[in-house]
Give the backbone structure.
Amino acid sequence: MLRICVATAAMLLLGVGPHQATAGATAPHAIARPAPTPVHTDTHPHLLIRQRGGHYAPGSLSRLPRSEANQVCLAYNNYWCLKGTRWEGQVRVGKQRLAVFDNGTQAARAVALTLQAYRFKHGLRTPRQVMTRYVLSAECRKGGRATPGCETMWQKVDRYAARIGQALGIRPDDPMGVFKARNVVDRQRAHTLFREMAHIEVGDSVRVREEVLDEGLRRAGIAAA
């Protein structure tokens, strides 16, 4: 009788009920724990990757189709495919005279300054006006839609202006309302414009992070309200 009581007490100490078989008992220190969630170390610092559900989340360009992952503007940290000049943070001029930036925030700064110049130097206010200068060569702009060899580019202007207008909730020939003053933008509308322009250039599979856009504006000396 004493032996039975001792055995029962031992089973209770181990967390095993008196009616459970002791052969399957597991000591507390051997209890299985859930495996830790894998940590991806290849997360892109400037971009979010579109997921199957359509939302954007941190990820790696290696998960994109090769045709998209190998885009030259992505490799150049130049998500707006800006031409090379003497941009701050530009390390060299690459293929197609594109700027190669040290990081994405420098590219965001460059596009912020570009759009600021469009608005206050050239008086461009609408999606169509902005896309006309952004997309077309000087020859195509000067000669108009009838210029030989420019028809395809003008079609792109129409398509891109419609896309940006839709994203901003306006028509292609309405004012965008991005700049409140020379050095102040509406943050949400500026993000929308920058994001859609980047989608036009590098596709919808990636999205520039909001903190990159904010830092680009800050470096350009433009406040976001």
In short: Confidence is low (pLDDT under 50) at residues 1-41.
